[in-house]
């Protein structure tokens, strides 16, 4: 029965999209016999195969016409930035990217590193007519879209530039940042508030105990730790289940190691996925990696550590990142950027995190808070409603 219903539905759809040459057949009655329906279906499929070369030729003719009539995108290298846009947008693109670099990145990094001359920073204004040539032969992962409620272009440009800076280094650090780049203006106060707000064992210990707990919270491996050791410190089993429930429903793992393994994943990557020069290199070794999107530290907290590492490393910090092999780990990348051991970097970052303490950020209520609560409660007890009762 189900087969008959499926065939009938498919024939009905094909009848709607039948080309003009078959229009005469649409008026015919649909045979009730299943065998007749199947024969008609086979005939329609043969007709589709016959017309496919004509459709392909039409697509090629249209594409050729498009290439002759639509403007091709252009690239300009301005102040060390390679910028890609349509001719109509190129002035706006240059103005945006150069201004964003000068305001947001130059105080931290100085001049654009050589790697940005090899990466196109794309820009497209959707208020104009769509031009499909914009995306051809281009890397649009660093991309700003203007117009049509596409968001603040300055924020997009910051993400585009910072993502390009990270992608020019080892792939693992871009994965660790969830391909969102970093904010060069992030404040340590913001990072501390994010850590204080998350329900995580390791985040609490980061703010009250050790820098080692901070590394684990960030999904990084302190010396001698495995990925499983890191993940095991994040949450209690109850909180871990809540995190998992936000990602999927049903089939939750059991207690213990099964729960920890859920926060790990196997990532098999081809050895030749990415090359530098003519030599294929391994990007990510096969094995277990941390699911960074499930960790307690968000992008803002990680941005704070990246920016701290860049400031600590001083001149040449970003160039040291780009000089690493693509297979380098996140820990190795941060050590190279800061030019100091990971534990020292984490300790100095944590000290900076806690040095900007603001009483308003403290999680425990103060004596003043309890006094106000008591005062309000006293007023409530003296209200008319309470006296009449």
Can you characterise this structure?
It is a single chain. By secondary structure, the chain is of the alpha/beta class. The protein is 52% helix and 8% strand. The strands form three sheets. It has a four-stranded mixed sheet with strand order 1-2-3-4. It has a two-stranded antiparallel sheet with strand order 5-8. The longest helix has 36 residues, at 34-69. The chain starts with a helix and ends with a helix. Residues 1-27, 268-286 and 361-389 have low confidence and may be disordered.
* Helix fraction by DSSP (H/I, runs of at least 4): 40-55%
How would you describe the shape? flat
First-residue to last-residue Cα separation: 71 Å
Mean pLDDT: 79
- Looking across the biggest beta sheet, what order are the strands in? 1-2-3-4
Report low-confidence residues grouped into runs of 5 or more.
1-27, 268-286, 361-389
User: Element order, helices and strands?
Assistant: HHEEHEEHHHHHHHHEEEEHHHHHH
> Helix- and strand-based class?
alpha/beta
Number of beta-strand segments? 8
- DSSP summary: helix tally: 17
Strand content: 5-15%
Largest sheet: 4 strands, mixed
Cα-based radius of gyration, to the nearest Å? 29 Å
